[in-house]
Structure formats: C-alpha cells, structure tokens
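Quick one:
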Amino acid sequence: MTLFAPAWVRDAVFYQIFPDRFCRSPRYNAVGSFVDWGSKPTRENMFGGNLAGIEDKLKYIAGLGVNAIYLCPIFKSNSNHRYHTVDYFEIDPVLGTLADFDRLVKKAHKLGIRVILDGVFNHCSRGFFQFNSLMELGKNSPYVDWFHVKGWPLHAYDRKPNYECWWNMPALPKFNTNNPDVREYLMSVGEFWMKRGIDGWRLDVPNEINDDSFWQEFRRRIKAVNPEAYIVGEIWDEPSRWLQGDQFDGVMNYVFRKAVMAYLFDESPISTEEFCTRLKGAFPSFRYSSLGQRPAGDVPMNLLGSHDTSRLRCQPCSDEARVRLAMALMFFMPGAPCVYYGDELGMEGGKDPDNRRTVSWENLKEMQKNPVYDWIRELIALRKQEPALRHGSFAVENRQGSFSIARSLDGWTLKLDVYWADGAISPCFAISKQ
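Output:
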C-alpha cells in the first residue's frame, strides 16, 4: 500500500467548481426547465450548468495557472448540489453524459489539468434504488440491511425519520457500511471512476463513517488502480487520526481557514500571537509514518472558501488588503492551495446558498479588472517559479504584533512579512527572497 501522498499534489493548484453554477454551454441541452442564469440562488432552484460548460472554460482555468480541478458531485441526483446521490454510476442528465465526462477529463489532461471528484459515501438520496426498495417493500426488501432502520413503515416524508440519516435530514439516509455488500458497492464506485481516468477523490464527511478499516480498504483499492491518486478528506477539526499514511493523503485544511478568518475577518479578531499559534497547529509535526521520518498524509488542500462557506468579500471585516493577504498566506502554506470558483473574480456571496452564485461570463472582461484577479495569477506564478513554496521547510515567527512566514529550500528563503502600521485598520505585507 502506498503510504505517502503522490508527488504531483505538492505542485498542484486546485480550482473548486460547483457544476450547476459554473457555466451552461448550449452544446448540451438537458431536458427540463431551468431558472435564468444570474437568478438568485436558492436551496432548490436549478440553473443547468453542465460538463460541456466546464470543458468550454478549461482554457480559462489553465490561463490562471491552475493545474487541478475539484468537482463537486456530478452523479445522478435530484438536488442542485448533488450531495443527494441517486445513482453513483451515472452522470446527472442535467450535467451531461458519460461521453461528455470522458471528453472533459481527456481535454483537461491534455491541458495538464488533473481532475478529482467528490465522493459522498456516508449517505445517499431517498431516490437511491436500494433505499427506494425499502420504501416500496418495507422489511421484505432484499436491501433491508443496507441502512439503519429503527421501525416500519419508513417515515421518509411526513414525520420524523425512523432511520439514521445525515444531520437528521430524511432526504439523506445513512449507509450501513458494516454490511459487506454496501462496502463492496461503495468501493466499486471508487474504482469505477478511477478506471475512467480521474486523478483522485475528495471525500465528503468521511469522519461520519467512523470506521478506520473502511477508509483503509478504500485507500488500498484506489491506490491499486492508480498509486498516484490523491485522496483528501473533508475534515473540519484536528485531523491527525486520518493522516497516518493508511487512510488519506491530506485533508481540506479548515483548521488553517478558521485561523485566517478569526485573525483577518472577524469583528473581534484574535491576537497575532494566537494566530501564529493556530497557524503552526494547522501544520503539526505528527504527520510522520512509524516506518520513518518521511511525512505521511502530509499534503493538505488549503482553502479560504468553498461551497460551504461565505465568500471572502462578504466576511464581516473584508477589504482588498485583507483578501490579498489571506490569499498570500494560502499560497505560502505547505500543501496545495485551492481557489473556490469565482473568488479570483471577486464574486460575492453570503451563507449557503448565496455563496453558490453563477459566474457572469458575459461580463468576464469587466470582472477581470478586479485587482484580486491579477493577484491570484501572480501568486500562482510565484508558486510555480519558487520550489521553496512547494517543497521547502515551513517556519512561523511572531514578533510583537508582526509576524513572518518563511519557506526555505536549497539555500533560498521566501518570506512573507506582515505588520500593522500605527492606526492602520488593514495589515501591510511584503514578499521577499533571501
């Protein structure tokens, strides 16, 4: 079994795409009616973004310097976010076809862009065939042991659910992963899409499958198909349990994000000293294999925004200087930075679902005048030019209200110095090479 994260991830810059809101290409016409592009997003409305639209914008993505994309769920579902999976082996017909998917992956790879998919393996949709069987046949269903049922008949719509589901939402029944048939089904899903050419998996709420052996087996099965696959878990809290080299290659680094939000964007910010302490804690020294000193599970996906968070421009104390510094910090961290679609264009959005607005492609040239656009491109270029930002040592130094981040490799040090001028409401910072 491969203990360590694939080497390519250290050189990756990810771009997260929410498919329903990214781009709707006329090259694919889904059956059905969709709201006008640019409408206000709700929890239910569908905009009809599709895989052909993502394919159409691959050159734009590559033009940023991005070399990896993470797609929110693309499997058959009856929700705009598609975390309610109906069929794990089918592309959602609103998004396109399997041929569209294959063409997207092939074109992305031709442009040097890797593709990872979102795996929702803790729960599914009420429309999932095996759960639908329970609703139709009750305890006589051959799939009765696929879920955690507490009584009959199922209360799937009109009353409190009498089966386990994610956050007690009846639309999201929880799998019984102790059932060998369920485990084999989910493992086969992971293998199927790996064999179609994807480069890894982002795992949705993997901590809710509270069973190390499940993810150990998942890792073995995925790495057997492609040893260079990246497996990253959505873990919001201290992640050491998952990063011993036998489960995940990294986690979505919400510990880092929480520290940045508390320091730069909260109305009652933490101190510089506390921020530096938290920053060090986001990249602790526990990530070592028992077999030696080479780090295991050591390549986090560092992020500032996602489909689950308010956008940077809508944070309580947001301004251009704070946004620019937050992005600089992300690119100075060990691991791989991940840009949430539209953040490079200064898109706005509050809490879910407002943070999932559509990209106004007809106004692209105007949006590209936002200074954040050029800043992100500069940071990506800097990261590609400077191996220290990808492979160097990492140090944080606190100095009475100011601090610095240092990444060092082969005798060169790249530093990010941050300080607060007297009376300033926003931080000042500078990048230097020594």
